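**Sequence with structure:**
===
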Amino acid sequence: MNEVAKWRELLLSQGIQAESHLALFTAEAVRYMTEEEFHKFRLKYIAPMPFAERCLESWDNVEQPISDWLAEGWKSAGIYGEQCRRVTKFRLFKLICMHCRDHPDAISEMFHVVARCKDDDPQAFRELLMDLKTYEFYRRLFDTNPKGNPLKIDMISKILEPQYIYPELRKRNANEYVPLLVRAEALYKRSLKHGNGKTEEQRDWDLEQNEMDVDAASCVLLRGLPLCTDTKSSSREAGDWYYHFMEACDTDPRTRPLLPYIDPDWENDLIRWRAHKEVEAARVPNWEHNIKFVIANAEPTEPRDPQKYAEFRKTEEDMDFEPDEYQLRPYQNELIVHANNKKNTIICAPTGSGKTIVATDIIRTHLETAKREGRVARCVMLVPTVPLVDQQCCEFVQYLAGHYWVDGFSGCENFHDGRAKRVLACDLCVMTPQILINMLNSVLETERVYFADFTLVIFDECHHCDKGHPYKMLMDQLAELDNTKNGKRPHIQIVGLTASLGVGDTSWDMAACQRHMLSLCANLRAETISTVRHQLENLKEYVTPPVDHVEKVSRPVNNEFVEAIKLCMSDIQRSMQVELLRIVEQKQLAYIGKDDIVFPNLDDQAQYQNRVGLLKKYLQHLEEPVTRVFLLRSINHLSHYFHAITISDLLPNFFALDYLHKKMLDYAKLSDNDQFNQINANLLKRYKVLSLQLRDIERSESGEKEQKKRAALLCTGSSNKYLFNMEKKEILNKLYRILNEQFAKDPDSRALIFVATRACAQRLAKHLMELDLELPMFYQQNNVGYMVSSNQSGTMGGQSSDEQRWMREGFSNGIIKVLVVTSVAEEGVNIAACNLIIKYNNVGSERQMIQRRGRARHKNSKSILLALDTGVEQQEFSNMRKEAMMMRCIEDMQEQEEQTLRKKIEEKTKEMNVIRDEEKKKLEYKREQLMGKRFNLKCACGTLICCSDRVRSVMTTLFVCCDPEVWKRSKHALTRLPTKEKFYTNCARWVCANCGEHWGQIVKYSNVFLPEIRVRAFVMERLDQQRGGFDRSEQVGKKWKDIEQNNFNVDAISMADIRSMYKGLLETNPEAHKEYEKQSRQADQQVAEKLAEKEWRHKDRRERVLLEE
């Protein structure tokens, strides 16, 4: 007894319920429990219990008390053998473990039964004692909250289907898992042998036996995993088993629901662990002997041969795979003519016309031609988003594998020895443009590639090659290379693919539209535009554009729900005005004027969102902490109310109320300091009053709707009159009607519904499956799904690439009939089988209109816009006009002779070069004016940050300090959520080692960590012969652009700068380097892609910032 008491006390001290731990040993209890013990335990521990007389339904559908039910099972063993005895022991053991928690004798006696395994199965006995070096991770399978669920691990073992995670655990290459998996699989496989050629009652016992065996296999797995890594003798890191188990569960939809039950924050927890493991694996004991920097002037002039890097291909299988054959259609043959004649061209063809097959043929022809001519060739396909990397890679493998090596790179791969050699091993690589930019600029030999390594570059969705997009940055970098090569430029063919060239930022000027297209051609060095001209009839046979409809819908008159929210928003806005006016009058923020603090009317949602979004961005730079928190938190509440109104516009008010409730719960959990508690309390007080009003309104409307439903059920012959008028909201009624008509006409239809936000996508998909009367074909059928972006974690409403793939596959094979999507489905994501497009009060540019319409690829397809706002309706009609103008422009350009068009593109290229040269001359003149000016940049406390001649610019927008000594004068504060920007990653706050002043951010660029300097973090002290400078108060509101114009020159960062900063950090603070790497990995995991691009107003060119959800 003392032994058991000590054992139980040890487990309890570690937060582990001894009863639940013991319940994991069902297999041993069943094996070692005698017949006498069974009857003793049944009478002693089960019969006296209050629940024992509770009736259960037995096999012959006769209800009987639990205690008798156990006895009946035991008697059946005389007829059906030992199988029934095992099942009945299983029942008894589970009942005792679950319901005798406060009975020490029961636990003690059951322990001694299980402990009989000591001699026969020493491993099971080790698991029973559970002697671990840390119980931290095993404890996570139990609920240690006194008010929590004491049966947490019992539920996990009951729900877990271990057969779905065995394969993933085997992939871990961890020998520690093999014996455990063999034991667990033996129990599970035994359950597969039951049930052949038996009576119905025997089969019922078989089902019980199966359930017992699966449960036993789950138990063996759960109790055995901790001993694989968390014992004192293990060489592995504690907790590895836990995260491997979590990852294994995440690979299958049948086990994934367990994860939030085990750990509500499982996604972020996994991200942090992966980042930690990757950093640990990448660490080298002596970096000086392992890190190889790129050698200056060692750039190749010809592509390096993929065959020399064959060992770096990710598989060891022989490449004897026979690819699928394909046959180009006549119109596709017309599209490839220029590209296969080695010309740079832009291929413009409708969505659904098979541009991927066209690209496949261009790539194969390019590689085959090079092989015949004895040249080395390598192709790269650039895609704008991460989901497209996987999708396009699979397409190319289907048609090229076996002859050519294809691989994809999205930025989330973990290659400890770099990715350069894996890229060089490819005949074709698919990647996002930012990956290629990073590799072209890396100082590390393991990451560096060159333009000369590629002979064909294909830009998917090439209309993005404009302004600040990575496509344009790549082409600009190539142009710079040409200017420094003295005529020895790399021979690279460039092909663009798009469904729409767009019309640019123009009105209705055909000449301006044509100039835009010529600019796009010049940016991509295209000599011509390839479209279908001679095979239009053949194109129409395969690609039939859906018929476009626009239906105007109205908002409900006198919407009490929305009016109550607007009134609350007005109160918050009034409370902000005093502080905002003071900020403007005292000029605390130079870029905020009186016009900026006037809140627009909420009826103009686009203007309101833009104005308040910009105001939030500006106020983040306010110095006074209390005022800043008050204003920013007030804007956050305005944002939530604003989004509640937009949800109310499109969905039943319940969803808006639920959205607000969840948002406000987050604020209720905040533990601010005393200064901010009152701010939080006042805002929540307003919400509390509002929520009572909103609940009353919502209940009243729900009751009215139920009355309409009853009327519809009673009505005969004219039920449709009621069916589509239950909602007050016309937009919902029309949506129901459209879906009903479509699926009544064609039950196998597929519909895509485009919405603006992730929140709306999730809620609308849920709502469509809750309408028993209006949409019976979806009611509780799980045939409506949603697909949103992968650049947010699941907790932020995002989806993983796997989840997106499951949605696409379900939609394609008909399991999902309706898919509610955001813009993720616009560009290139292949969702065929669609014959209805609904744009749910959501419209974009003319390009987006063409791409969305192209998702409907079946004949007799429809594209319908439900326009709630006049602006939305007008924008759609405007897009249609722009599309027609674009097509006329393309036709006009193609009617010209090829030489004439080439000449116009060359003239446009020269014109753009002249403009660029003039800008360079202006910059050079300005730099001459500032030549010789030098400053010390100092912190407010007097600590030197660096000299002005050690400041460098990255991509002209990021300004960093390139003085290796600065690492000694500063320190860092890790950010909770590192973020991934266009071409760098924010890893930590950079602060003064002396006073803690915020100097800027630690960023990762080109695989190296650099300190980015905030323009308002320093004062300047003049070093050259003239005296001057200015103090901190004059710095407020200035930008780096102003300093470059008026104070000192900033050079672009060089390879030497990057190399010196890399070495400086590792020499000064290697532990900091490790922490930054961990942060960087976490950002890679959390944000698979972020190709954010600034949008500008057309009139005043001011930045457009949307209110975040």
